[in-house]
Amino acid sequence: MAGKIRITQVRSVISCPKDQKATVRALGLKRINDTIDQEDNAVIRGMVFKVKHLVKVEQL
């Protein structure tokens, strides 16, 4: 079992490229300080890597 990670949006997606905005939305984040728990797998890690400057990640 891979476990879970907690992802928090810490910066705005205003003036970010469309693909980064779409990635943040696909993660389930809508606004700054939104927090979600996701499974820790390669797909989610790849999405987090793409927008690592906009989010904070914690291991659960």
Structural class: alpha+beta
Record the strand order, biggest sheet.
Answer: 2-1-3
The helix content, as a percent range, equals 25-40%
Q: What would you give as the CATH superfamily? A: Ribosomal protein L30/L7
Percent strand equals 25-35%
Whole-number radius of gyration?
11 Å
- Let me know the number of strands: 3
Give average pLDDT, whole number.
95
What is the global morphology? globular
- The CATH architecture comes to 2-Layer Sandwich
In DSSP terms (H or I, runs of 4 or more residues), the helix count works out at 2
Characteristics:
3-stranded antiparallel beta sheet; Ribosomal Protein L30, Chain: A; 32% helix; 60 residues; 3 strands; single chain; alpha+beta; 2 helices
Description:
- Helix content is 32%, strand content 27%.
- It is α+β, with helices and mostly antiparallel strands and 60 residues long.
- It has one domain: Ribosomal Protein L30, Chain: A (2-Layer Sandwich), CATH 3.30.1390.
- Strands 2-1-3 form a three-stranded antiparallel β-sheet, with no helix packed on it.
- Helix 1 packs across helix 2.
- The longest helix is centred in the middle third of the chain and has 10 residues, at 18-27.
